[in-house]
């Protein structure tokens, strides 16, 4: 699954620079996660870095984007190929 940011976000700016896939950006009111770029840090880290640094715990799994670890790894490979 990709992650999402809930409306409990306080716009503290700590999650955006932690995302290795550049999936987090400032939205109209709060930060947003692009599900096409979010791999839950699979391929980069053992745990999602945005969740680790979020002071208000507002980054749960996105129930609308269901992916298993294999799918997340394939997305990681596709994203890193595009950057190379």
TrEMBL record:
4Fe-4S is among the record's keywords: yes
Domain of life assignment: Bacteria
SUPFAM superfamilies: 4Fe-4S ferredoxins (SSF54862)
Any Pfam family hit: Fer4_7
Keywords of the record: 4Fe-4S, Iron, Iron-sulfur, Metal-binding
InterPro entries for this protein: 4Fe4S_Fe-S-bd (IPR017896), 4Fe4S_Fe_S_CS (IPR017900), PSI_iron-sulfur_center (IPR050157), YfhL-like (IPR047927)
Boundaries of every 4Fe-4S ferredoxin-type domain copy: 1-29, 31-64
Keyword Membrane: no
NCBIfam families: di_4Fe-4S_YfhL
Name of the protein: YfhL family 4Fe-4S dicluster ferredoxin
Annotated organism of origin: Uliginosibacterium sediminicola
